[in-house]
Amino acid sequence: MFLRSSSQQSRVGKWSRSLLLTGGLSLLLAAQSLAAPVTEKVAEKTAEITVSAFGASNIVHTSGGEVWYWGGLFDISDGKHTYRDNRPQIIKELKDTVSVQSSSVGPVVLKKDGTVWQWDIDIKRKSQDKPDGIMEFKAPKQIEGLSNIVKISISNGSAAIDKDGAVWVWHPDYYYTGPHKLTNITGAKDISMNGDAKLLILKEDGSVSEWNSYNNMQTNDNYTATPIKDLTGVVALSAGQGRNHLVIKKDGTVWGWGNNYGGSLGQPITTAAKELPTLIERPTLVKSLTDVSSITTSVGRTLVLKKDGSLWVMGYDVDEYNFPYTGNPELRRIEGLKKVTSIAMGHYHALAVTEDGKLWAWGGNKAGQLGDASFKSSKTPILIKSFK
């Protein structure tokens, strides 16, 4: 992903990486993120148990440094995909971690020493004559040029904050030219890279700037962020792979902009717009949201964690992955969950951790992304594992 140029990538690497994305994710019937409060600039401090998701892959990270992985793991025999049981499995090889985030082409690891590592999951081919192979975890490789990092945000683009409040960005795979420092950003407090590879930067003074990884369908080599006018007093950013952004202000209000597909920004939609994206160009007040703790997004749906630990959804339901999509900008509660502390969403499934250390999942399960080995989808949260 981040460590190889086009000349360094082998044809096998391209094939396996493409297969991982299209086979492991697109076979779900269609097509981190991790939702967390604003991060202090101390790399060793994390929530006790956090979750991250992208596509069908999922990660749990504990404050003790344990990393668990499941979802989308399959092998190929005679040209046929066979998904593994896909229950959460501990990854003993990963040590001294602060956070691990799922992304479009594999997990990214932040270690206690402030270094950042790419952790590949790839197909090991049995022979060059057949596409048969087994999916395996590669040894993490350090991303050179990043040090003293305290926060990462990985989705369809990659970004990091260092201990001095500078922001670093890098392009994926064959576009990789190394990490680049945004030239006009100091005092960064939080970052959020969304599913459109658009980065939001929250500064200590509550102002917000943005930077786009791409410009006119080409990688953006202008490493200057653009301040968002008239957006002040912000204390937290949404996370996830949605094609939009939301922010929480100091006064408790929530503002959103970008793609309102399915009503995921809580704004009204027309009948036609249920199937076609509606773009909201400027930050707009989401009147239905109050007392919000954190927000995570996916395509056409938004999960909202409130301060009382209750969990709510806007846009499509989490398990809604078959036509016809209905869309609904109204806020609806996710029943059966109380005292939620961490949330994440893949394309068509969601994860939640409750105060008692229990992991819950619901939504699509064609690739084992719920982690219960049943491969049966669920409209309601089901208990997967207890981490206490």
Automatic annotation (TrEMBL):
Protein name according to UniProt: Alpha-tubulin suppressor
Aminoacyl-tRNA synthetase among keywords: no
InterPro entries reported in the protein's UniProt record: Ran_GTPase-activating (IPR051553), RCC1/BLIP-II (IPR009091), Reg_chr_condens (IPR000408)
Entry keyword Hydrolase: no
Signal peptide: 1-35
Keywords tagged on the record: Signal
Pfam families in the cross-refs: RCC1 (PF00415), RCC1_2 (PF13540)
UniProt cross-references to SUPFAM superfamilies, sorted A to Z: RCC1/BLIP-II (SSF50985)
